[in-house]
Amino acid sequence: MSNYAQRVLDELKARNAHEKEFIQAATEILTTLKPVIDKHPEFEKAGLLERFVEPERIIMFRVPWVDDNGNVQVNRGYRVQFNSAIGPYKGGLRLHPSVNLSIIKFLGFEQILKNSLTGLPIGGGKGGSDFDPKGKSDTEVMHFCQSFMTELYRHIGADVDVPAGDIGVGAREIGYLYGQYKRITGLYEGVLTGKGLTYGGSLARKEATGFGLCYFVDAMLKANGSSFEGKTVVISGSGNVAIYACQKATQLGAKVVALSDSNGYVYDPNGINLDVVKQLKEVERKRIKEYVTAVPTATYTEGCSGIWTIPCDIALPCATQNEIDEASAKTLVANGVKAVGEGANMPSTLEATKVFQDAGVLFAPAKAANAGGVATSALEMSQNSMRLSWTFEEVDAKLKGIMEGIFAKVDEAAKEYATEGDYVAGANIAGFLKVADAMMAQGAV
Ligand code: NDP
């Protein structure tokens, strides 16, 4: 690592000692930026990295709401507006009991580079709360969302900051949040993405992250003389990203044999029946273990990390951060995995990533591979501004073009600055260069 990047990382660790996920993301990014930092001594003079690692603004707030028994509950809300050099802040809202400032900062930091890679004018941000939607009634979720937006509305806007979904935030939550924003401000504007189709949502947004992941992995495989055709695929998670990754991988000729949730995983050697999964997860909001009731030839195993012991050609982690550790990565490699595509954000630990790269596994890092969701959110913003709706095919074609474009940029940056095939370095460098240029142009204060 360059002396400058190392010094900034040391300061960041001292200042944010308890934020382990943020430190993990920053370590990977700053380590891989060395060749760029070495080439641009003016960055140090301008304090560019010190500014880059510090969010422009952090908003933390109380979210009080009343449950179905009439009891007052209090959660903590966050919005981290990390970087607006290339556009309004953009990034999802996560509702999960594990949410804390470190997780929101790591997600916001990654989002800066991801959004830059899309080629669209969007800055980086992220938010959420430690509220757990699981087991709550629709009314309780609505009360929470309304209270959350009652504070958040003052900090966002169609040209200021445009949140979207993430873990625990789907169409239902976006609807409640949008309704409250409109009620308070009187504005009918594209302030959130992932909206329902009757009130400004974009066709193909629901599918975008999972489809985009497969478009990226397909481009990576093809550049290396392979494809999805005839491959066995394991996908973790069974939420928005996992479901549509499963659909597109299957369309591209692969057989997906496993899915999971935070309790366990199902293995279906005949190939996952996606109609069953959609009914369970999108309609009935049930657990993945119910899959074996509808498909008795499949098996269910308790515990989610065991999914990585299933032999496969391609692994697509689509659940959450740090779900593949070093031991799981070694098992996947020993079982012959050829490619890994990160649908979730930072699903591989730093040690796991090294295992894959050392073993010559094709490795598609999250900030490039899962950028299809935010890219399509930016297309939703464009449609809102133009008061137009594109067809599913139009949006899907744009998404495919964007993902292939991201792969080309990442591949080229890896060749120019790092090692051919090191898509982790390629993604960080390609994403950073545009943001750095904009930050330099806009001055230091
Ligand atoms: P969903 O809430 O729709 O689904 C999340 C899935 O992951 C569920 O199956 C959930 O299981 C599982 N999961 C969540 N937390 C854990 C955990 N701690 N351990 C094991 N499994 C877990 O979320 P999304 O599909 O939208 O998001 C999945 C990942 O993709 C996240 O990392 C997100 O940041 C990333 N992402 C999402 C985008 C989007 O457009 N939605 C865009 C880019 C990235 P359970 O039901 O048991 O909680």
What this model shows, in words?
With 445 residues, the chain is α/β, with parallel strands linked by helices. Helix content is 48%, strand content 16%. The strands form 2 sheets. Strands 9-8-7-6-10-11-12 form a 7-stranded mixed β-sheet, sandwiched between helices. It has a 5-stranded mixed β-sheet with strand order 1-2-4-3-5. Helix 13 (326-334) links the parallel strand 10 (314-317) and strand 11 (339-341). Helix 6 (101-117) crosses helix 18, helix 9 (205-223) packs across helix 17 (392-417) and helix 13 (326-334) packs parallel to helix 14 (350-358). The longest helix has 26 residues, at 392-417. It binds NADPH dihydro-nicotinamide-adenine-dinucleotide phosphate (NDP). The site of NADPH dihydro-nicotinamide-adenine-dinucleotide phosphate has 23 residues, from helix 10.
Q: Largest sheet, order of strands side by side? A: 9-8-7-6-10-11-12
> Helix count, per DSSP?
18
- Which structural category do the helix and sheet elements fall into? alpha/beta
Distance between the termini: 27 Å
- SSE order, one letter for each helix or strand: HHHHHEEEHEHEHHEHEEHHEEHEHEHHHH
In this structure, how is the largest beta sheet organized?
Answer: 7 strands, mixed
Low-confidence runs of at least 5 consecutive residues: none
